[in-house]
Amino acid sequence: MTIQNRLSLLFTFLTASILLVFAVIIYVTSEKNRENTFYRTLHKEALTKANLFFKAKIDTKTLQAIYTNNRSIINEVEVAIYDDHYNLLYHDDANIDVVKENTKMLNSVLKKKEIRFYLDKWQAIGMRYEHEEKNYIIMAAAYDLNGYHKTYIAKRNILIVFLSSIIFIYIMGRIFSRKALSPMTNIVANVKEISATNLDLRVQLPKNKDEIAELATTFNQMLDRLEKSFDAQKDFVSNISHELRTPLTAMLTELQLSTGNLRTNEEYRKSIDNAINDAQKLVRLSNSLLDLAKANYDQTEIVQKEIRLDEVLLDARNDVLHNQPEFKVNLIFEKEIEDDDFISVKGNEYLLKVAFMNLIENGCKFSKPNESSIAITYFKDKTIIRFQDNGIGIAPDDLPNIFTPFFRGDNKGFANGNGIGLSLTQKIIALHNGTISVVSEPNEGSTFTIELPHV
Q: Which of 179, 243, 385, 427 lies in the 20 to 30 Å Cα band around 357?
């Protein structure tokens, strides 16, 4: 069942329930008023007949004639009069005798002064009447034909109005729910048009600033992220294809040439060395892509623990020097370590080591001689690490893009690389709630500054 149908039915049910409660209250109240009004009429008629009998001294035959004549015209009240010994003194028509009084009933009237009760749909009343210091019992009964007819008309009208109201309310509920959900319908129509080939489309925002507008805005923001993610994925795949094609093509060419003609051992050795070189580029590229994938994980899925940054820096420095013995890396502690907490952070040791190695290698390979420095200082709330070199620097036009994956600046001819290192480093630092910035001047060197909070 659609939301529109559920809303229409719910709206109809709630409103109909309220109307039903009011209808029942009105009907019950009107019935109670009819009953009380007729009892008052019976009381008045009984008193009138008793006064005519006792005070006006009208004889029995005359009173019975009045009753008989009126009974053929209107719904006349039947009255019976008893003394306190339960002897019948007068009855309008003993042959009919609707009430059929008994000793128990008459005794109850004397004790309670007045009783009211029903005989089927006939209403009856018994009352104690005092005359000349004697007690008498007056019984009166009648069928409220006019009152019951009015009650029937009222009940019929209430039922007609109630059923008509339900139909009207359901129609209005349909109109209301359709109007209320029209922005949602528009959103569904917009979403159906959006696919992987046209992620630039957006959901039309409703005019009203309500929850549906908030939903549409949130959905558009999600589409923005998806579009950026798809574009980044396309660029990523394109760049990877380009980066892989170059060394693979070089390897294939070298191997084809070496198998084409007989060569000297020295020429074969040179071809093998070139192939190994290209294979090493592929290994470095695959390792960089693997590290980049790890850095893109959700932070909650990365194992973190308390680690000392000085130890991670020493390990990164040693690994770089092991791979590149010609590099020289100076590690400078600008303050003495007074508290281990000031040099410790909660993070992933492997990823931070990868980030530090990237910055160290970049500093060395873009410098002549291949030398760089690491300066570390700490404060109560954060640790600051600066990676400095006196190399060729970075062109001002390249600075805004150096953290973009696969971006290679004007200095790409100076040293080999795949454009992943700095992008990977930035992601790793961001995963540790830190920041990285760079200051560089062409031919004067670069300084990368990392700030990591103690969290």
A: 243
Which amino acid is residue 14, in one-letter code?
Answer: L
Q: Is 331 helix (H, G, I), strand (E, B) or coil?
A: strand
Domains and CATH numbers, the chain: 3-150 (3.30.450.20), 211-284+286-293 (1.10.287), 301-453 (3.30.565.10)
- The predicted pLDDT at position 52 comes to 87
Instruction: Please tell me the distance from the alpha carbon of residue 342 to that of residue 340, in angstroms, as a whole number.
Output: 5
- Give the span between the Cα atoms of 61 and 68, in whole angstroms: 10
Whether the predicted pLDDT of 386 surpasses 90: yes
**Predicted TM-score (pTM) of this structure:** 0.48
Edge-to-edge order in the sheet of strand 371-378: 328-333, 371-378, 382-389, 445-453, 435-441
Strands (E), 343-398: 344-347, 371-378, 382-389
CA 279-283-287 angle, 5° bins: 170
Average pLDDT across the chain, whole number = 81
Residue 341 to residues 149, 238, 310, 378, 432, Cα–Cα distance (Å): 94, 44, 12, 10, 16
CA 399, 400, 403, 409 dihedral sign is negative
Which pLDDT belongs to residue 302?
Answer: 63
Identify the three-state secondary structure at position 348: coil
